[in-house]
Amino acid sequence: MLLRPPPLLPFTALRLLSHPLKYARLVLRLLMDRRVPLHLKALLVGAVAYVLSPIDVAPEILIPLLGVADDVAVLLLAVHTLLTRAPRQVVEEHALAIARVGK
Hints:
The protein is mostly helical. It has one domain. Helix content is about 70%, strand content about 0%. It is built from five helices and no strands. The chain has helices spanning about 10-20, 20-30, 40-50, 65-85, 90-100.
């Protein structure tokens, strides 16, 4: 049975955007961890490739705000999926390590 991650609610997206450096460090640590499934890492790499790609669903030239919004939405969805589908204890372990360094 395929489990779905919880929906990406606006406050979740705001939380991700409110501490971008901490979440970036967490994502990088999860990408380097062998306990995180490869398909989750590939999803994030694909999202970054989509953002960097000149081919876009909503081009920035034609629809400036929507063009940027779809890139942000793709990245947020990929990060959200990584954080919710990766093994919980692995995510918590790395989050605690980042929190300890930040104090």
